[in-house]
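To: structure desk
From: M.T.
Subject: fold request, one chain
Message: Could you run this one when you get a chance? Sequence is below, nothing fancy, just the single chain.
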Amino acid sequence: LGTARTTNEPNKSYYDGGGGWVNMTPNFKNPLMIRMVFGKRHRPVPKITSSDSICQKQKLVINADGGDTYQWGPAANIKFPQNKSTVAESDTSFTLTLKTWDACGIPSSTVSKRIKVNETPKGRVSSDTTICVGTSATLRASGGTNYSWAGGPKNSSWTVNPSSSETYQVIFDSTNGCRLTLNTTVGVQKL
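Reply: Done. Structure tokens follow.
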């Protein structure tokens, strides 16, 4: 199993370093004798639960099972790397790793999961502009697959004629499920 060890603290179990445990109990008829019972402990089996992909700038909730203490990696991507449940984020795809230990300190093997990070649309929208009251402005968006103006059409342009200054919002959707929201303001100059 592993190397033998002696102790002056009976009635305790010790991990022997080789995947087993040793239970030491005193013999009250002969205090110098300690009965040693050898057993086999199974290593914890860690499991990662999370989505397989996220969008850039999006937080990924990750959960661990199969242990009492935890170590997530890579540390640069994990907010709280020793929590059972935590969050990860990255601008590029990365590989999550997880190692766990049971209550007796027996370590697990390291498991991993590849997380794909999808690109957020690189959208652009018309710059802020000012018009005279009674005239109109055409707002234009580009860089996405689908467009949706809040309170307006679902295409890349929208002609507006506000009576006072107003901010307009456009949502860019892409085929990978990621989206971007941008704003533009049309100011109105009173005559």
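Reply (cont.): Residues 1-7, 11-15 have pLDDT under 50 and may be disordered. Let me know if you need anything else for the meeting.
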